[in-house]
Design brief:
The protein has about 240 residues and is an alpha/beta fold. About 25% of the residues lie in helices and about 25% in strands. The longest helix has 12 residues, at about 45-55. The protein starts with a helix and ends with a strand. Bound molecules: 1,4-dihydronicotinamide adenine dinucleotide (NAI) and the ligand Nc1nc(O)c(N)c(N[C@@H]2O[C@H](COP(=O)(O)O)[C@@H](O)[C@H]2O)n1.
Amino acid sequence: MYSFLSHMAFAPAPDAAQPHVTLTFAQSLDGKIAGKHGQQLILSGPQSMKATHILRSRHDAILVGIGTVLNDDPRLTVRLSPEDLVAETTASALQHPQPVILDTALRFPRTAKLLLPTAPKKPWIVTGPIHNKDKRLELEALGARVFVLEVDAQGRVTLPELLSTLYQQSIQSLMVEGGAGVISSFLKSGLVQSFLLTIAPVYVGEHGVSAVQDAEGAPVFRDISYHSLGQDVMMVAKPAS
Ligand SMILES: NC(=O)C1=CN([C@@H]2O[C@H](COP(=O)(O)OP(=O)(O)OC[C@H]3O[C@@H](n4cnc5c(N)ncnc54)[C@H](O)[C@@H]3O)[C@@H](O)[C@H]2O)C=CC1
Ligand SMILES: Nc1nc(O)c(N)c(N[C@@H]2O[C@H](COP(=O)(O)O)[C@@H](O)[C@H]2O)n1
């Protein structure tokens, strides 16, 4: 069922000083990634959720925005059974990706699961030049690493600088999971090499959170294939450059 994933390479191009970027998320038939007021929804069925964890295991780092951390309190770890680890990956032990959070104003909660002593890798938090320095020290004392990068006029971390910073930290592959703001930024950036979209056979309705609010600048796709995973479909494609 997952052989299409094992045939995919997530390595940077030889001349690129940035990680391979994979954008992947789950949406409903009406293009929603969350419910009313951002309510977290489990859209993926068990088979496509396993695909997500296989993908996590294949990437050096995993990125979400601070909106997702505040809303979902995610762990961003790989959870695969020993049997699946052997059957679906080439790793002999679970390898968790490095969590990376885009957090312009350092709103990261001190109580987040990503900061628990049991978290396998403490988060890298990417913030802007204007942030609370005491909060930064507190987060660092809890194990986080804080990177300060430039932000654009809308207060968003500039993605080319982010990618070159991650590459300098030996991150060769980056899996971007969301949420809506981050998906839109990466889709428009021209910096995504692989796109894997889980489509679940449900409707959320007009009050749900759309994956993409504004399609201006979104890419055309090539090399498109569709894979049945239980009741879901995973679309795999490359944004045309
Ligand atoms: N179905 C799925 O696969 C997923 C669903 N979600 C859902 O997404 C929702 C959260 O989405 P959002 O509120 O839009 O938050 P988000 O997770 O996209 O974070 C957006 C925030 O990140 C910061 N940021 C810094 N640099 C940025 C940049 N270059 N581009 C974009 N943002 C940048 C800004 O402070 C911005 O407000 C939640 O409801 C969550 O459940 C999140 C991930 C996956
Ligand atoms: N693949 C996928 N399918 C869904 O239905 C989802 N809701 C998500 N959400 C993403 O997974 C994060 C939670 O991760 P942990 O289980 O805590 O490790 C959530 O924050 C979204 O990024 N993904």
